[in-house]
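I'm curious: can you give me some protein's one-letter sequence along with its backbone structure tokens because I've never seen that pairing?
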Amino acid sequence: MQELFGAEFFAGNRARLRELFTGKAPIVVTANGLLQRGGDSGYAFAQDANFWYLTGVEEPDVILVIDRDNEYLIVPDRNAVQEVFDGVIETSVLSRRSGIQKIYDQKTGWNKLSGRLKKVKHIATVAPAPAYIEQIGMYVNPARANLIQKLKAYNQDLELLDLSPHLSRQRMIKQPAEIVAIQKAIDITISSLKESLKPSKMKTYSHEYQIEAEITRGFRKRGADGQAFEPIVASGERACVLHNLANNAPLTKNNLVVVDVGAQYQHYASDISRTVIYGNSSRRQQSVVAAVIEAQSFAISLLKPGVMLKDYEHQVVMFVGEKLRELGLIKTITEESVREFYPHATSHFVGLNVHDVGDYNRPLEQGIVLTVEPGIYIKAEAIGVRIEDDVLITPNGNKVLSNKLSRELR
């Protein structure tokens, strides 16, 4: 497998961050930490996207310091037991990967950093989210909060400057190597979906998890890191629950199945949804799928540099409203009436995270990659339909990166 991201990529990202962040405060950014799954077993480690973007380092608990023209990494200490089970951190590998020559152990690194902390008023870092985000019902990795606690232990009066807006702005515009990685993730996803969802193959399945397993197998055998997010395979009424992750129900004849998946390749995500039939489709199912395809085509036609996503989303909602009226689901097109059957946004950014960072209040620019995923969900009829593709904003319009995968009901 060709490595798309070398030290020049990460060094360039650090240089651009220094240009965007015009302050003189030292920059300190942490890797994620390991999270317990149970007993002494941890969840599979996933690196903080911002930290990887700046360093390429895959190890947990490493700290990046950028102080004027001086940059270095502080690596965690590992005891003998950790070294036996997890291996030794090879500093030469970290240096070659990141392009950072100075790498210190905990004691040396923090002694060096603490001297600066006592002399400055500000530190630039990535602000932590609340420990628990109620809106999504999820706990966050504590590494950022722990870093701030440690920084303040050396200087309680430190004022923190949040780098998040700068990194979001930077990561929103994809560089050529990033687009190559996203396209590779998309191509892997397309090939795996074509193989797994062909009508002859669908006849062999009896449960949702069999489809998930076949797609996962396709991703791995084609060189993907794995899934970019928890896959969704939802049939019948379950397809009306947007993030139905159980994937454990039996498949029922003549029901629609929403498959929302994406391979990850060298840290970059894809995100594609298709709606297929298990058995034979009815005219009603066909008409709903056709309506969603029309809505997606309309949405894609709007995307180009300069478009404001808020305006774009409103136009798509009104178009879906027309389709809902044609389907006899609503009589009057209002935001409220449409949202009963179309409760989510049309687009989100894609990159290092499947729901990637970016500024939704800025006009679209060349180099942005985003999804286009309208849907219609009719719970009373056990019909859920979502069609999703990944789109690159080009100088004069857009390019559908996943256009090799048919959207038609099969």
